[in-house]
Amino acid sequence: MNRRRFLIASLCASAWPGLPARAGAAEGWPRRLANADGSETELTAPPARVLSSSVTLSGSLLAIGAPLIASATTTHGDFFAQWQAVAENRGVEKLWPAGSVDLEAVWALAPDLIVVSTSGADSALAYRDALAEVAPVLVLDYGALDWQELSRQLGRAIGHETAVEALLSGFTQELQAKRARLVLPAGRANIVSYHGAGAPNPIATATGAHGQLLAQLGFRLEDPPKSWQAAGLPASADFVRAAYEHLTLLEAETTFLLSGTEADVARFCADPILANLPSVRSGQVYGLGPNSFRIDYYSAQEIVAGIAAQFDGA
Questions:
Q1: Does CATH place domain 172-311 in 3.40.50.970?
Q2: 3-161 CATH
Q3: Is 90 exposed, middle or buried (CB count within 10 Å of its CB: 0-12, 13-18, 19+)?
Q4: What parts of the chain have a pLDDT lower than 50?
């Protein structure tokens, strides 16, 4: 559709039936939202047209029922597979691939809230001032928050607090039911983003989103030393970006491979440099699933289901 015609249509209330009307007198509004950098963003009414400049944040927006009209994509121009069908069913428009920003497209879509991440390949933080000329900008650090807290912050931004708590409560009940049936291997576990020699091989921290999810399922996480962080790479709350040789120092009896499939497990176990790892010797290396790189409601469900299938003691 021609962007100019789309803009004109989007300004008509009849063009978007079912979306909440903007009303400054709505209960609990206006409200001030805390940004990750310490600043605040004021919204006068619940947003009816949300634009996500971060593909990582889009999954959480979809899960809580946000009126998401458009989202940035991965560097390959795709949505994340775990929620792609949901986005397509809701008519979410694809914006730019991660690493680029099209300000003309933002103006044409006329959002009333723009969500930006502070870091990552999908961060549009450098364009914050320009984006703020179009609509209020909410800045979040998805690397410092688990997906549940991220959902809560986004829920407050769009006035969906009750829906968020219902979503999280349902997930917790499902997780606890699956955990009660698990028979876990002895010892500790680690989570590795395996890339082999000549590249960083990030290892999940015990307090990061992936580590916390496995802890909720009953695993004890091996926490990589911060000293393993490769020089020149940005620090992360979720991972220590370790050099390949640091993998040989891991001690956990079980290893999960981030974004890992059976083929990745076979490649990891066949690496001669890693042959003496406790998890390799015991045959306890597992893929965490192809969509486990970023955790949101959808990928968390996939991870829990995969672990339940692997370790169900029934």
A1: no
A2: 3.40.50.1980
A3: middle
A4: 1-25
